[in-house]
Design a protein that fits this description.
The chain has one domain. The protein is 81% helix and 0% strand. It has helices at residues 7-14, 20-70, 77-99, 107-134.
Length: 135
């Protein structure tokens, strides 16, 4: 229009227009929903990575416990040396994974290191027993 409108006329013409909040409410709802889904997806991925790291350390537990279970039945120094080498390889592999951030240096890792040390001590003890038996 080329002529100015009275304030009352402008108000009357704009009275049925939706407010800014009403106009963008649906867009805001969609953005909020997408944000919630993305945050949930990020949380799920983080939990999967955390679980995968825990599963890796659990594999080390199982391997160490299997060797520890066999220690009473080891009958020669050579077999003990092979078992000791396996344990040392577990340690090396675990620290490689730790450096590459595929394991976390948390309580589970400290338990693994403790179990590893205990297994090595048991192997040393068994080696001493075999040496004493031969004397």
């Amino acid at each position: 229009m080329n002529f100015p409108l009275h304030r009352g006329v402008k108000h009357y013409l704009e009275c049925n227009k939706p407010s800014v909040f009403e106009r963008y409410a649906e867009l805001g709802g969609v953005i909020f929903s997408i944000t919630v889904v993305l945050l949930d997806l990020i949380n799920t991925v983080k939990n999967k990575i955390k679980q995968k790291k825990k599963d890796r350390i659990d594999e080390f537990y199982v391997d160490l416990l299997r060797i520890e279970k066999e220690i009473p039945y080891l009958d020669s120094i050579q077999v003990i040396d092979i078992a000791r080498e396996k344990v040392i390889q577990f340690k090396i592999r675990a620290f490689e994974l730790l450096v590459h951030e595929k394991l976390t240096a948390n309580e589970s890792f400290r338990i693994f290191i403790s179990l590893l040390s205990e297994t090595l001590l048991l192997l040393d003890k068994k080696e001493e027993e075999i040496k004493n038996e031969k004397l």
